[in-house]
Amino acid sequence: MNITQALRRAVQQAPNLPATVFGERSRTWRESVDRVARFAAALRDLGVAAGDRVGVLALNSDRFFEYLFAVPWADAVLNPINVRWSVQEIAFALDDSGTQTVLVDDTFAGLVPELRVACPGLVTIIHCGDDQLPQGTLSYEELVAANAPIPDAHRAGDAWAGIFYTGGSTGRAKGVMLSHTNIVTSALGSIASGVFMEPGGRLLHAAPMFHLADLAGWIARSILGGTHVILPSFVPATALAAIERHRVTEMLLVPTLVQALVDEPAAAKTDLSSLRHVMYGGGAITEVVIDRAATVLPGCEFTQA
């Protein structure tokens, strides 16, 4: 089992179907696999070797989606960083995992000088945003353009897929090492339950993509094919507009965000009929909130994870 098999199958089955929608930018599965293979080549050219860790400190985006596939494609290990952490906490996770290469977007580009000081082992910083290239970083888009695609390394089985740091609520965060088999088996179990996703659907990424909860949705939707509709972060009105515009079929939220979504005044004026499944978790949900959600989204099933 390996994560990148989902990408290879999707491009085989539906190469011209949109894989990602991010703002006004949409890319097919064919375009996505080409960019993934090119960025993987760039990582190898930068010295990333088998088993090396590659971090990302960024809000949700289509480039985050590509990172999740490109790192294992290059035979390396994912290390998504919690965007809510301080520089000291970020530096600890990078040092603790031995991460020498990290991607940053526009939101976190201003932290680059501090990260350089706090994390002396950091060798390469890649800017994966759209704004001006920060000093001391490499351009993600230039790396993709400058490199020819390479074959998938087929990193698989018990090999690490990623290191995912816990919240650190009772002490320092701890890096949880998950294999390709761990992640794919979990996704297949979720798919087999039949309570969240259907083939060819459209998943809304409003929860943070650095978190394992959203990553579980990402790999399951990729295995099933369909489209990833990506928002940088959760804003109720923006999420509602995305559901209507892109005919989103499922999303994953924590209970407080479910409440924020259905309490948003725009919900009453938005066509949400495409939405079929909402998975929620991370805390208890009150009967009042779930009843309200069922009223606003009458055609939707709700599943607690």
From TrEMBL:
SUPFAM superfamilies: Acetyl-CoA synthetase-like. Residues 8-304 form the AMP-dependent synthetase/ligase domain. It holds the Pfam family AMP-binding. InterPro entries: AMP-binding_CS, AMP-dep_synth/lig_dom, ANL_N_sf, ATP-dep_AMP-bd_enzyme. It comes from the Bacteria. This is AMP-dependent synthetase/ligase domain-containing protein. It comes from Streptomyces rhizosphaericus.
